[in-house]
Design brief:
2 copies of one chain form a homodimer.
Chain A: H1 8-23, H2 28-44, H3 46-62, H4 67-73, H5 77-91, E1 100-105, E2 111-118, E3 121-126, H6 130-142, E4 146-150, H7 156-172, E5 180-182, H8 188-194, E6 203-207, H9 210-219, E7 232-236, H10 242-254, E8 263-269, H11 273-285, E9 290-293, H12 295-301, E10 306-307, H13 310-314, E11 321-327, H14 330-340, E12 345-349, H15 353-362, E13 367-372, E14 390-391, E15 399-400, E16 407-418
Parallel strand pairs in A: 3-4, 3-6, 4-5, 7-8, 7-12, 8-11, 9-10, 9-11, 12-13
Antiparallel strand pairs in A: 1-2, 2-16, 14-15
């Protein structure tokens, strides 16, 4: 690894790895100082950021990129202020490093302590959202991790100036500039190479849509944390409070349909469907939500709807579309969830105690809700202060990944000559 | 995934996944009952085990397999008794499931609790060591995980009878038999297929030599936990106690050279090398340890030794061979460790307080020792009761993986109608 012809990507990764050695053991004050400088420099160099971003937006418009994507790509004075404010909030979070979460003296007198340490170097592959560039880098910095960032090509100019500002800030704080680095080469092969940077990256976190996640899982040889694909369900039991059900489903569907914790398919107990569906339709109509569903749903709604297909049951719409299935009982609902859930967030609305317990025990997902909206699955809402993504795998971290989930541990054992018999 | 033509491996994996649904939420008593039956049935059906194992050994001998491997492959009455006793010991360990390790009431009144749950289905690929078949399956069972086992082809007959006995035991305990399954097809393509059973396996743990681990890392699309490659170092500082250094190095090298926590390269401060090396040679000569080393080592030992090459520095000998490098100072030792360590176990022998602190802070490894043998990195020695392997990666688990490291968590949130603003 250390010798011979490194590719440009490997050269960059080696530089990040080398910088990590300093950052991984840098004291909390130094890491916070760097973040503080970032917050300040983002505002000071706002004009440069806006100019670079304007180039990206112009190119995106020229290329006929969709309006929603251009919105995510756009930076404004207010957005830069918000990014800067978010940095300051991260400074105020407790340091996730150095804590001893386990320790004992072994029978032979060896003193063992398990201490939280950074993961090392984190690779992050994401889409054309320049705010992620700063959010992700700052969370890595706070948790003592160097990072290698690879953002969507549409945001390259924005990402480069943000990278420059962050590297300037690192230097001002006395940390190696390559604690934060950006892969500028946006070719697909380079992205694939990045997924195979074993020996340089300790973990790779893809943040984006299902396609990106799939590509990373299929190609990566570096350990990956899958994030963010949310095909979420709400099961409305026959004992549910009707107004609560309408309110929760409306919130879970329409408060922000584009996010992973929004609901996609609702499963309604057949005994309550005739009362619930008309009320729900009335509420969702206010947001022009389109229905898809089973024949019974159509019958109760009394209007023609697109029949729900296998594809509907597996799709994260990210849109004002809801899929509805009338079920005979909770067993049928549980079977549907087990089959189609991406194990992100699942909810039951019920007043039956036993069923609420059975649902939370049997549903295999990062977050299981009783009588609440699935929209709460979020690092901020959970009180973690910030998140780098929502893990849908069971290894290492499940659910919102806050600073604690960006750490590993090491065992330190102090003795006075102990040998193993 | 649920439809169409499944391969035989997928069919087996689907059956394991289905069985996992029951096992994942089975109470502790039921899981322990199954393990208890396994312990009993192993003894009751000992004759069948020995007969199957004899077939494997006969075939191995016919194929000219090395004696050390035949030893690992061999089961005897005593070894079966030991495996059975190890099962009983696992029963006595605390249940890793159901514990709430984090919980709070959110400002909106949502009650959140994070509960330990099984990973789900664990795939384990290992070499021709039939004891691992039972050890690994029982740890999975105890932690509520179903498992799909794939052992070395040389142990197939032994593994099949052990699988039968464990499945009988599951049935007696009222659990689905396919909570434990064995991949009988030992073709390399099947092993590769197993590494890509996304949707069936939640994690894949390879247990074996460096070649196996590399193949799994390169080919797996399922999340992997790398285990067991240990290129471990001991640095002897100039202030070290000579007798302690000899004693620790002798223990770390010769008490069991074939294991991953044995030492491979020793780094000796040049100020202490002239005193230490003769004493160390005298001790290691008792075990016919072969030396390799730098020119200074040769000079001090006053005998011709094979010069240490780059390959020596990267090799886990697993043998009575030691590599020695004389260093100018701890900085040189730290640089060597940083370059060649597999981040398993590293030790310093010193009486200098500041250096001991610097070493534990700067060395990036699962276990870092001061004045003790590296041989302690082991689930049993660490007090975990048992281990399924020693992770050398930083994600999810680092160091010995006991029952706690075979769990994930889920967040359960109970509300009364909360929606997100």
């Amino acid at each position: 690894m250390a010798n011979a012809k490194l590719s440009p990507l490997e050269t960059l990764a080696a530089s990040v790895k080398n910088s990590a050695k300093t950052l991984n053991i840098a004291p909390s004050a130094k890491r916070n100082e760097a973040i503080s400088r970032i917050a300040k420099n983002l505002l000071a160099r706002q004009a440069e950021i806006l100019a670079a971003n304007a180039k990206d937006i112009a190119a995106a418009k020229e290329n006929g990129i969709a309006a929603a994507m251009i919105d995510r790509l756009s930076l404004t004075e207010d957005r830069i202020k918000a990014i800067s404010a978010a940095c300051k909030q991260v400074i105020s979070l407790p340091d996730p490093l150095g804590k001893a979460d386990f320790g004992t003296t072994l029978p032979n007198g060896l003193e063992m302590v398990r201490v939280k340490v950074p993961l090392g170097v984190i690779g992050i592959i994401y889409e054309a959202r320049p705010n992620v560039t700063v959010d992700a880098a700052v969370l890595c910095l706070k948790s003592g991790n160097a990072c290698l960032l690879k953002g969507g090509k549409e945001a390259l100019h924005s990402n480069m100036i943000l990278r420059d500002i962050m590297q300037q800030s690192l230097e001002e704080a006395g940390l190696p500039t390559h604690c934060i680095a950006l892969v500028e080469d946006t070719a697909r092969e380079t992205t694939t190479q990045m997924m195979r940077l074993n020996g340089y990256l300790d973990v790779l976190i893809p943040r984006g849509g299902a396609g990106l996640i799939r590509a990373v899982v299929a190609n990566a040889t570096v350990p990956v944390i899958e994030t963010g694909v949310g095909n979420c369900h709400i099961y409305v039991d026959e004992t549910a409070d009707l107004a609560m059900a309408v309110n929760i489903i409306d919130n879970a569907k329409t408060s922000r349909p584009s996010v992973c914790n929004a609901v996609e398919t609702i499963l309604i107990h057949e005994a309550i469907a005739p009362q619930l569906l008309p009320l729900l339709k009335e509420q969702l109509d206010k947001h022009q939500v389109t229905w898809r569903g089973c024949p019974k749903t159509e019958e109760i709604l009394g209007m023609a709807i697109q029949p729900a297909t296998e594809e509907d049951y597996t799709t994260e719409y990210n849109d004002y579309i809801i899929c509805c299935k009338i079920v005979q009982d909770m067993t049928e609902a549980l079977a549907h969830i087990d089959r189609y859930s991406t194990r992100h967030s699942e909810a039951i609305i019920t007043n039956d105690y036993e069923r609420s317990q059975e649902f939370t025990r049997k549903v295999d997902a990062a977050a299981v809700y009783v009588n609440a909206s699935t929209r709460f699955t979020d690092g901020g809402e959970f009180g973690f202060g910030a998140e780098i993504g929502i893990s849908t795998q069971k290894l290492h971290a499940r659910g919102p990944m806050g600073l604690d989930q960006l750490t590993s541990w090491k065992y330190i054992l102090r003795g006075n000559g102990q040998i193993r018999k």
